[in-house]
Amino acid sequence: MIRVLSFLLLVFLSWNCKSKQESLIEEIQELLEEQSYEKASGMLKDYLVKPKSDDEVLSSEKPETPRIVELSYDRKRLVYLEDSKLIWRDTSDGSNGSKSLDEVPASLAVSLNANFALAEYPMTNGCRLFAISLKNNDLLYESGAQISCRNRGGISEDGSKIYYFVDNQLYEEKTVEPRTPKLIVSKEKITPPFSGLKARFFLYPIGKDFLLFSGNAGSYYLYYFQPEKKSVEKIDQEVISPLIYYGTGDSAYYLGGSIGRLHLRRLQLGKGKPSSSKLFTISRKEINPWKLPGKNEFVSNYSGKVHLWGPSRKSQVLPLLCERIWLVDQNKVLCENEKGGLYLTNLDFPEEDWRILKLYEEARDK
Fold it and tell me: Whole-prediction pTM value?
């Protein structure tokens, strides 16, 4: 009897959800017949922007400062900063937590598994650093260094060491007193493409090691940095953007090529120096590539739209309007909409959502 009631309840809920979509479609079709295109477009956009009933809303209010979002290398642990509140969530086991900070950080970097974070706080002439534990309260370490806010430092997987740049050189500092920063990589070993431009440096964890970008203005070198050996090796010298998009398994993606001709490149990770391979040319609509698991397909967002694309398929706009996206754990998209809301949604869309997207495009173009 209980199973029968549960089945009937599921059928009712499914029918009720579908009826709301169908009601919207019928109302829109009437508006289009009346040539009320602006009203129809607004209603459809409102539907595509808002999270659906089965989506997980993480934040419904737009923070006063731009939201910072970071992911662990396996994309299972999500860390985001809303003003002075640091929040984390593990999609694999549902665990979550938050920490209130005294001030609003200027930037944030996380360790390999996102159990630790390195926060930069703005000062009059630069930034100061704090190492923070996201597992418990056993680490809140303030570095004595004053650094440039232009760069991105790093923190070890166990939170015991932080890495940062001073005068184009890389330093290591243990997160215990007394403060003992050590120069471990000189500027001659991590030169940027153009010595005349003020360089920027970015670190991203891969295992116990890091990827290191050096450059500026759409031209970077990519290095492999091994803290234990205090060594760096160049991986690529034709890099457009100092951003890493963690893939599935032992891979990561970034943008190479030159201005006007962008290439998607893959890093094969594992033991030793990662190997880089050029995949294929991409367009501006595909410049933030998040790899889908098990498929040679990617999702990215451009101009408020979310695109599904790949080397052997035509780019397709999805029925989802997001200003920024991150692919979190399997097929879940973390969407930040134009209203500042943040929510997790699946990439499985019912037929009615595709019809609503088509109607929206028709009404918008009228």
Answer: 0.89
